[in-house]
TrEMBL record:
Residues 9-220 form the Cytidylate kinase domain. It catalyses: CMP + ATP = CDP + ADP; dCMP + ATP = dCDP + ADP. One of its GO terms (molecular function) is kinase activity. It is found in: Cytoplasm. ATP binds at G12, P13, S14, G15, S16, G17, K18, G19, T20. Signal peptide: none annotated. Its EC number is 2.7.4.25. Pfam families: Cytidylate_kin. Belongs to the cytidylate kinase family. Type 1 subfamily. This is Cytidylate kinase. SUPFAM superfamilies: P-loop containing nucleoside triphosphate hydrolases.
Length: 221
């Protein structure tokens, strides 16, 4: 890992606006972008495709070690798993839930650690996830914890999924998001917590542009 390359970590729960905001911040800084959630999601897709049970952790770890995962240079990047474009499967809630389940296991997280750290390349990296500032890039000079109220997060995810043509029910989605967040916050391994020294940004009442400005401010400070 080249520790002289600057990293801005943006951690937070789903629906906080992390994905949109982090991508835009990376673009404006001209830095690389790591969507770490997409790596956990791709592993969940790999499990489904190979018929691997989500609780067979040894098999999931083997998959994590052997899967060939590539992000194309398109914007947004397409995700290729062993050469197959799985971009359409990545954003669904069932994929997010499966990702959250396998992500609770230490050996799975360990197997994905270096894949994430490999994104740290000049001139810099914006890393989006749950444990970017605490575990993956603890030495990052810039850290943000981006959050929003549960109601706002559910509403945003609902709109996002609808726009992608994915059919969802707001009430079911709210329950699923709450359950996923609880699992991500309460797990023993790399739980979702605010990293020490992180700037807290509550995006509930912010426009995307204002949230982007707050994250850029953390780098310029
Ligand atoms: O950010 P996301 O919704 O795409 O992430 C999907 C799941 O992956 C999330 O619920 C928990 C897991 N995850 C994680 O444990 N650590 C990360 N750094 C990113 C995601």
């Amino acid at each position: 890992m080249s520790t002289d390359v600057p990293v801005l970590t943006i951690d937070g729960p789903s629906g906080s606006g992390k994905g949109t905001v982090s991508r835009a911040v990376a673009q404006r800084l001209g830095w690389h972008f790591l969507d770490s959630g997409a790596i956990y999601r791709a592993l969940a897709v790999a499990a489904a495709r190979t018929g691997t049970a989500l609780d067979d952790i040894a098999a999931i770890v083997r998959l994590a070690e052997t899967m060939d995962l590539r992000f194309t240079a398109d914007d947004p990047a397409r995700i290729l798993l062993d050469g197959v474009d799985i971009s359409a499967e990545i954003p669904t809630e069932s994929c997010g839930n499966a990702a959250s389940r396998i992500a609770a296991h230490g050996p799975v997280r360990k197997a994905l650690l270096e894949k994430q750290r490999a994104f740290r390349k000049p001139p810099g990296l914006v890393a989006d996830g749950r444990d970017m500032g605490t575990v993956v890039f603890p030495d990052a000079p810039f850290k943000v914890f981006l959050t929003a109220s549960a109601a706002v997060r559910a509403e945003r995810r609902y709109k996002q999924l609808k726009e992608k043509g994915i059919d969802v029910n707001l009430q079911t989605l709210t329950q699923e998001i709450e359950e996923r967040d609880r699992r991500d916050r309460e797990r023993v391994e790399a739980p979702l917590v605010m990293a020490e020294g992180a700037v807290l940004v509550d995006s509930s009442d912010l426009t995307i542009e204002e949230a982007i400005a707050a994250c850029l401010g953390a780098v310029r400070q």
